[in-house]
Amino acid sequence: MLERGYAAVSSRRVAGEADLKPQLVHYYFRTMDDLFLAVLRRRAEESLERYGRALASDRPLRALWELTTDPRGAVFTMEFAALANHRKAIRAEIAAYAERVRRMQLDALARVLDGAGISEDDCPPVVALQAMTGIAQVIALEDTLGITTGHDETRAFVERLVDQLEDGAAA
Amino acid sequence: MLERGYAAVSSRRVAGEADLKPQLVHYYFRTMDDLFLAVLRRRAEESLERYGRALASDRPLRALWELTTDPRGAVFTMEFAALANHRKAIRAEIAAYAERVRRMQLDALARVLDGAGISEDDCPPVVALQAMTGIAQVIALEDTLGITTGHDETRAFVERLVDQLEDGAAA
DNA sequence: GTCTATATAATGATAGAC
DNA sequence: GTCTATCATTATATAGAC
């Protein structure tokens, strides 16, 4: 899926990777959609744990930024977003998972902003979160496509801002 | 492509939409990749013109924001991004087109920031551009997936900022 | 430019033996 | 749980007549 796109994921190829017959894929998952859902769920759980650990660290913003700019995550997200675009069950699962992650992130970010003396009126935490993760996701996606203009400057800018905020929160 | 994803675009289905035989699709484009490239190029040219008009208007930032948050564009971008992920020719074409758009946007944004009295040191134009378009793209994409938390607040926040900047530029 | 015909390969999925 | 066998369907693409 990551290397050749979701459309290249067939029962035959999956079976080949595992040195099994294609029929076994259908035995375990029946349809290919069931397989995609299983992959999504496993990955989502892993991702939730990873974000949980990152946000519980002593520099949660920095960890959040680094996790969200990971290009491997970007490819995965893009493939599933494309898949979700025309498969209802997958779309619902992604949305539910995304909202869970966002709530976690929001709690952590609100604490940091509060600690740095930034009020709701200055910038609501939900806006700061959307900004930070949106920028991170697009940078990661663009990197995988070979679009690089402005990335270094943006990374530097955001990372300086993040460090300022977290130093403020520590003080 | 927009309704069912790029993987559902076959010579049979395309021909069916046009009430033609599938072989004619191959007559005009030979391979399906040629067809995807033709679609990409046409759409890219249209998009360049649209951005050109938007950025030449009297409120270029507002126009840029509205164009980039258009959900139709998000689906298109996502499908091609997924396609590009494992087809070299398409990836190169997307990257080249994206860099052209970015240069156009950057010129317009730099003028607005300059007019509003915001220096390179405060915020480099390329960073502001990445932030604004990144946030816009992710909001548009999430909307199509049914993820909506924080969108209203973020839209309001960005739009107020944009209006402040453009009022400052006008003054 | 459009047709018929066809080559070739891959697909998802099931039935039934062991 | 794994196998053999198989079905119906779809896919991309080409050849050659008109």
Discrete helix count of chain A? 8
Helix-strand topology string of chain A: HHHHHHHH
The class by helix and strand makeup of chain A works out as: mainly alpha
Helix content class of chain A = over 70%
Q: Whole-number radius of gyration of chain A?
A: 19 Å
Find the biggest chain interface. Answer: A-B, 47 and 47 residues
Provide the residue-averaged pLDDT of chain A.
Answer: 94
Major beta sheet summary of chain A: none
Share in β-strands of chain A: under 5%
Categorize the overall geometry of chain A: elongated
Question: Multimeric state of these chains?
Answer: homodimer
What's the number of extended β-strand segments of chain A? 0
First-last Cα distance of chain A:
45 Å
- Unreliable residue stretches of chain A: none
Key phrases:
homodimer; 171 residues; 8 helices; DNA-binding
Descriptive notes:
The structure is a homodimer of 171-residue chains. The first copy, chain A, has 171 residues and is an all-alpha fold. The model of chain A has no long low-confidence stretch (mean pLDDT 94). In chain A, helix 1 crosses helix 2 and helix 4 (60-68) packs antiparallel against helix 8. Chain A has helices at residues 11-17, 22-29, 32-55, 60-68, 71-84, 88-115, 125-145, 151-170. Chain A starts with 10 loop residues before the first helix and ends with a helix. The first copy, chain A, is built from eight helices and no strands. Chain A is elongated and about 60 Å long. The interface between A and B is large, with 47 and 47 residues. Chain A binds a DNA duplex (18 and 18 nucleotides) through residues 10-12, 20-24, 26-28, 30-32.
